[in-house]
Design brief:
Layout: H1 2-10, H2 21-55, H3 62-74, H4 78-108, H5 115-131, H6 135-138, H7 141-154
Helix pairs in contact: 1-2, 2-3, 2-4, 4-5, 5-7
Transmembrane segments: 24-45, 81-102, 114-134, 140-157
Protein name: DUF805 domain-containing protein
Keywords: Membrane, Transmembrane, Transmembrane helix
Amino acid sequence: MIQAYKKYWKKAGDYKTYASRSDYWWVFLVNVIIFALLNMIHFFMMIPQAAKILNQASTLSQAELQKSILDLSFNPTGSTLIIVILIALVGLIILLPNISLTARRLLDAGLPRWFALLFGVSALYGIVVRFIQIDFLSNFGLLFNLITLVVYVLCLFPSKYGKDEADDSRLYE
């Protein structure tokens, strides 16, 4: 797992070699763990603010309560804003390496690399929509989630390469 993650950063801008399934999915797992930890921190930072809103629930109308809860989620302030920005920054930092890893994985599976660009646009949408709440943008959520799912399924395909290929990128250094 550690070797795959090191390789991920070494080949962050490489779009021409290959990435094995294990390389792809180990990196995927590490990134999921990183984001799970950051989101848990975000969740625990929101608990006191949510408790404050719930304590006022008896004095608020249903519309006011709903607005307060949505504001807590979509308009973070203070420490929750800092963690939301940190999550977005981590997402932006790993965006290009993820696109290149996905392109290399798709190439290894014998599929077109341009699917990785769709995957990148989908990931960028996920970051942007967190900060910009426009109804027009939210209409594309399902589409981008489907694109992401399709790319993940394509990354499950086995390697397809000829015996004459001498690419060492499937091996660990």
